[in-house]
Amino acid sequence: MNFTKMHGLGNSYIYIDLFKEDLNEETLPELAIKVADKNTGIGSDGMILIGPSEIADVSMRVFNNDGSEAMNCGNGLRCVAKFAYENNYVSQTVFKIETKGGLVEATVHPDQNQKVPTVTINMGAPRLNRSQIPMIGSQKDQVVNEPFQLNEQDIHLTAVSMGNPHAVLFTDNIQSIPLLVVGPALEKHSRFPEWVNVEYVEVVSENEIHFRVWERGTGITQACGTGACAAVVATILNGFSQKGKEVKVHLLGGDLHITWKENGDVLMNGAAETICEGVWLG
Ligand SMILES: N[C@@H](CCC[C@H](N)C(=O)O)C(=O)O
Description:
Enzyme class: isomerase
Low-confidence stretches: none
CATH superfamily of the largest domain: Diaminopimelate Epimerase, Chain A, domain 1
CATH architecture of the largest domain: Roll
Order of helices and strands: EEHEEEHEEEEEEHEEEHEEEE
Number of helices: 4
Binding site for substrate: 11, 64, 74-75, 164, 197, 215-216, 225-226
Largest sheet: 18 strands, mixed
GO cellular component, one term: cytosol
Bound molecules: the ligand N[C@@H](CCC[C@H](N)C(=O)O)C(=O)O
Pfam families: DAP_epimerase (PF01678)
Distance between the termini: 9 Å
Pathway: Amino-acid biosynthesis; L-lysine biosynthesis via DAP pathway; DL-2,6-diaminopimelate from LL-2,6-diaminopimelate: step 1/1
Number of domains: 2
Number of strands: 18
CATH topology of the largest domain: Diaminopimelate Epimerase, Chain A, domain 1
């Protein structure tokens, strides 16, 4: 099986080209765990399948490195767009990608050599209703700065779905967050029946935030594109910025530029890089 390893700001996946490779559906979770293993596999945050689509130009499926399938992946979308363009699966610079969480629009920005260093994705509108996260609770329909009891500790969180679920917490100091404790405890909390990605945000200004993530099914990663979009939406819902303003998000692996537009769509711009290509013999 041929593979390509790519990353978006250090969030790396093993990409398999389903235009050329034929995989057995039942073995996909196990394959994701195997290729992602840093000791006995290739090493990555998971596995992404790029394939044909009946309703878009290409399709993307995402598996975390624990084998669970996710509905969406922002860093993965930028890499899929780069892969599709550079491999001539699309001929336009603007095209559609099908994900399990819905359709998105990609705009690639090729250089003179037709290589794509950066990509903009229109992620569509965030889903904010409690049932769309999904999150159990009887309070207001939108979960904005809602008090939450976690292991006898009182925290506040804002819940946003970007096709996949996110819980965003605000902090005054991103260097001293208890991510290794709160991340896993919140990820599998019984009030999130489909589990949840956990993000901390420190607001610098209405145009700039710091961000850290504990990803559902993976743990701490260098970056999370959907998480960064959810963080900007949460920042605006909590009154720290406004719709229409571009927010620079500082992640461990680099920066993303995100705008929640007046029309409701979220735009994400950032890098996509190819690391290597190879043949999986496992
Ligand atoms: N790294 C991703 C998100 C991958 C899926 C996530 N862990 C989930 O289970 O929802 C991104 O860049 O968005």
